[in-house]
Specification:
alpha/beta; Rossmann fold; four-stranded mixed beta sheet; 8% strand
C-alpha cells in the first residue's frame, strides 16, 4: 500500500471507524471535506462543533489509534469500505481554481508541487498548469489533489463496498449509511466552490478538454465518466 503514497504519510488518507464498522479512503476534491465533518459527527455524536479545518481539527481515530493490523483487516473486508470520485474534467478545473488561483495559503506549496519558481502573487495559467501535470508521474510526483483518482483509491488493491460520486453525493451518502447500518447524521457542505464567474477554463478550448480526458482516461473508464 505504501507504494501508492511514496514520500507521503499514507495514514493521512485512511479514516477508520471500527466502532461503526466503516473505513473511508480520502480522495481530495471529491467531497472529502464534507465527508470528514460527517464522520466526525458520526464518531462524536456532536453536531454543533465548529471545525475550522476539518482535516486538521477532526476528532477521528488515527491509524495508530486503531492499529495498523486492524486497519488492514478493515480494508480487507471486515469493515464497510467506501470513497467518492468526481468527473475528472471538472475535478481538474476545480483544483486549479482552488489551489492555483484562490488559495493564498496554498501558494507556498506551488513551487515544490509543480517544480517551478514562482512568486507568491503570480497565478499560473491553466494551460501551463495542465502542461506541467501532464509531465508528472502519477504516483511519485502528482499531488493527491490532482492525482488520478484510481491511484488515490489504491485500485485494484482495495475492493470497495461503494464508490460514490460527488454528482450524486446525498443519494450516495444515504446508500452508504443504510448499507453500513449507520445512524442518521446531518450533513454540512464544506469547501464548496467560491467562484462567482460563470465561465470555465475550457470555454472555447475543446483541445484542453481532450487533454484532460486523456490524462485521466483510466478514471473515466473505471468510474463511468
Amino acid at each position: 500500500m505504501r507504494q501508492y503514497f511514496p514520500g507521503r504519510p499514507m495514514a493521512r488518507y485512511l479514516r477508520p471507524l471500527p466502532a461503526h464498522g466503516v473505513i473511508y479512503v480520502k480522495n481530495p476534491k471529491a467531497g472529502s471535506s464534507t465527508i470528514m465533518v460527517w464522520l466526525d459527527r458520526l464518531h462524536t455524536g456532536e453536531y454543533d462543533s465548529e471545525l475550522q479545518d476539518m482535516h486538521r481539527d477532526h476528532r477521528l481515530p488515527t491509524v495508530d489509534d486503531v492499529g495498523r493490523s486492524e486497519v488492514l483487516r478493515m480494508l480487507s473486508g471486515t469493515a464497510y469500505r467506501f470513497s467518492f470520485v468526481r468527473d475528472p474534467v471538472r475535478r481538474f478545473e476545480s483544483v486549479y481554481w482552488a489551489k492555483m488561483v484562490y488559495s493564498h495559503r496554498w501558494r507556498k506549496n506551488i513551487p515544490a508541487a509543480l517544480g517551478i519558481e514562482i512568486g507568491p502573487d503570480t497565478v499560473v495559467p491553466f494551460e501551463q498548469f495542465l502542461s506541467i501535470v501532464e509531465q508528472q508521474d502519477p504516483v511519485s510526483e502528482m499531488d493527491p489533489h490532482w492525482r488520478p483518482q484510481h491511484v488515490n483509491l489504491m485500485h485494484p488493491l482495495i475492493v470497495y463496498d461503494h464508490v460514490g460520486r460527488l454528482e450524486t453525493f446525498e443519494a450516495d451518502i444515504e446508500h452508504i449509511r443504510e448499507a453500513a447500518g449507520l445512524p442518521l447524521v446531518p450533513l454540512e457542505a464544506r469547501n464548496t466552490s467560491r467562484r462567482t464567474e460563470t465561465e470555465s477554463v475550457y470555454d472555447g478550448r475543446p483541445d484542453l478538454v481532450r487533454r484532460v480526458e486523456q490524462l485521466y482516461a483510466t478514471d473515466i473508464e473505471l468510474y463511468g465518466y
